[in-house]
Amino acid sequence: MTAEVLFGQAYFLRFDPKLWAARQPYAPLGALYAAACVRDAGYSVAMFDAMLAPSERSWSDALDRSRPGVAVIYEDSFNYLSKMCLLRMREAALAMIAAAKERGITTIVAGSDASDHADVYLDRGASLVVTGEGERTLVDVLGALARAAGAPLADALAPVAGVCFRAATGRLVRTPPRAIIRDLDALPRPAWDLVDVEQYRSVWLRHHGYFSMNVSTTRGCPFHCNWCAKPIYGQRYNARSPKHVVDEIAWLKETYRPDHLWITDDIFGLRPGWIEAFAELVNAADAVVPFKCLLRADGVTSTAARALHAAGCRTAWIGAESGSQRILDAMEKGTRVDQIAAATRLLRAEGIAVGFFLQFGYPGETLDDIELTRRMIRECRPDDIGVSVSYPLPGTPFYDRVRAQLGEKQNWIDSDDLAVMYRATYPPEFYRALHALVHAEFRGRQAVHLIVRSLMPAGGPRRRLVRDAAHAVIGAARRPLLSRRVRRLAQARVHAPTPPLIPVLNRHAASMPSEQPQ
């Protein structure tokens, strides 16, 4: 079946070994939004979904089936995996560009990595790069290409805001940035009909016993963490209305029957009263679906926690980052360690599981800071943890500080790479050992709880719990060896490590969101 525009994205789950083993795939929500907007503008569209595809060859097959005039590689800015700008996925995107170019197809690329490194994509054959938020830009680009009727590409694109291309002279041209979409309710629903939802359902049910889908209620983050890259939205933050979100969830529930939702927001329910209004409306519509989301610790109140429970929240992740107040302040996180503990207690009181995102290796972090983080985990007892090392990405003060130290490798290959690419306090081997130790300590504390739970009646859940308990026991057994390794590696401090970042904002200023245009 032919289409005027073929959409795709370059995050192949199979190319990310850790995430492929986890088998928790989510459809490319960003591409689904863009495809819906382009279809609403009158173009016929098709979708290549790389998430569960075997290789880039499948993209070539999709090009041959659809025979599009334009191919759009549109990365999913709602998925943190795409925002990590992984090298293996960049390689996949470049191979996809080459396949389209071989067929004489105009190729457009949009996403975080392309916004940061437009020259890389253009020099490998992309016709142009959409920078920043892409839905409306893309519609304008397609219109400009249609009107150009063979005129030079640069002449057609010059009036379009939010694009990057090569002039006839080879000069890199960036047009003025496009204004962020303020009224998110005006956007069409993601084009779910373009992906194989049943394939996703099958993977989730086979590996986890339930089916999860993804929903976005906001875009952007107005806070100031100086390690956090924001190439798409910058400091802007916009939210859909609670009713608009509830209408979509009710439609998803009726149409696709998910058992669970991942709300992809950088911060869920930031606007005062939003969560409470959402809880009321989603219950009134009989549209409650269990979900997980990400919260700021300083935004969790007893009222918000009760509303989250009522709305169906089962797991809330918190960007805890560190148990050292000194490091949080250096990051310009704007939160306090005691707020992390308080948020955990409030959420737990409502029966909501809590996950902590943590990072080690931030400039100036010492063993004392690391021990404070380990103590926070012990005392708060989160239900899950995600551990990483600080990762410098373009456009951040952190990146600017360590840029001169970065070698040829400036991106991770996949999500389990965890390479320390600058001079942290300790050698890279230390952070790998620390990563393993923190997980082993956490799993050891979970082991007894999991073993008790595994004594429930026989069946799928019991088998999974037994498996998880066995893994936890193995992790606990490795703990003494890992602890000795961490202590030994800590003796080999790096020569002239990066000094602590001096924050521009004090803790109070960092806790205040950027002012948003009215």
Quick synopsis:
It contains 20 helices and 15 strands. By secondary structure, the chain is α/β, with parallel strands linked by helices. It folds into three domains: 170 residues, Rossmann fold (3-Layer(aba) Sandwich); 214 residues, Aldolase class I (TIM Barrel, Alpha-Beta Barrel); 68 residues.
In words, what does this structure look like?
There is one protein chain. With 518 residues, the chain is of the alpha/beta class. It folds into 3 domains: 5-174, Rossmann fold (3-Layer(aba) Sandwich), CATH 3.40.50; 210-409 and 505-518, TIM Barrel; 426-493. It is 43% helix and 14% strand. The chain is built from 20 helices and 15 strands. It has helices at 17-22, 29-40, 57-66, 80-83, 87-102, 112-116, 118-123, 135-148, 153-157, 197-208, 242-255, 274-284, 302-311, 325-330, 337-349, 367-380, 397-402, 428-453, 460-490, 507-510, and strands spanning 5-8, 45-48, 70-74, 106-110, 128-130, 163-166, 172-174, 212-215, 218-220, 237-239, 260-263, 291-295, 313-321, 353-360, 384-389. Strand 6 (163-166) and strand 7 form a beta hairpin. The two termini are 44 Å apart. The mean pLDDT is 93.
CATH architecture of the largest domain: Alpha-Beta Barrel
Largest sheet: 7 strands, mixed
CATH superfamily of the largest domain: Aldolase class I
Q: Averaging pLDDT over every residue, what do you get? A: 93
Radius of gyration: 23 Å
Please state roughly what percent of the residues sit in beta strands, choosing from under 5%, 5-15%, 15-25%, 25-35%, 35-45% or over 45%: 5-15%
Specify the helix fraction band.
40-55%
Total number of β-strand segments?
A: 15
The CATH topology assignment of the largest domain is: TIM Barrel
Count the DSSP helices: 20
Structural class: alpha/beta
Distance between the termini: 44 Å
Number of domains: 3
